[in-house]
């Protein structure tokens, strides 16, 4: 794939034909994605608004900027969703102020605490990943509530690097109505964000899950730079890291598919 206008895939599945690794053109990729967004809304919601969860990180920042470029300021709605007190909420606020888009701040703390209280009361044990993933799923429910009340379509903000190794929450941040950036690696997302004029601190913000205190790369056990290069070229030096990435990719492919369903065929 050469990222020419109209060549962006509408699928969430990782692309098999890679962009030439050292020659990514952010201007061309931006133009192609903007055209794809416009076409998608023409076909799936003429006149509808785009609703996007805003974390202040590179992915939501870049997608929000693309949506503004494609649809205009008045048709993009950002939703800030802290879980109680969020230490980096100022970054999310900086983004919506920079773009000048309409936005809401909806705190999910009471919903999270209420549901966790019920789970802790009814279940013998609550897994650590449950506590990490539940806020993401509550946030996605919130986005759909905002969208249904504002003639909206929900934007997915995942990128190819995260999708490749399953670093997303199914029915949480992995959900959405359309996915503009699932064909781009982390480095490519940053390049697009910079091309769109986003502040450097938003583009380069170190991603964390907001709960464990670890960065995404700490949790993955390898850097996005290593992962991006492997995705685009197949090249990787460390055999253990290659094996880990391959294992994670295989284990998490189900997240990129529609739900499997049994098809009954009577004899």
Report what the structure shows.
The protein is of the alpha/beta class. 48% of the residues lie in helices and 6% in strands. The protein is built from eleven helices and four strands, in the order αβαβαβααβαααααα. A four-stranded parallel β-sheet has the order 3-2-1-4, with helices on both faces. Helix 2 packs across helix 7 (186-195). The chain is globular and about 50 Å long. Mean pLDDT is 90; it is low at 1-18.
Identify the notable features of this structure and list them briefly.
267 residues, alpha/beta, Rossmann fold, 4-stranded parallel beta sheet, 4 strands, 48% helix, 6% strand, disordered N terminus
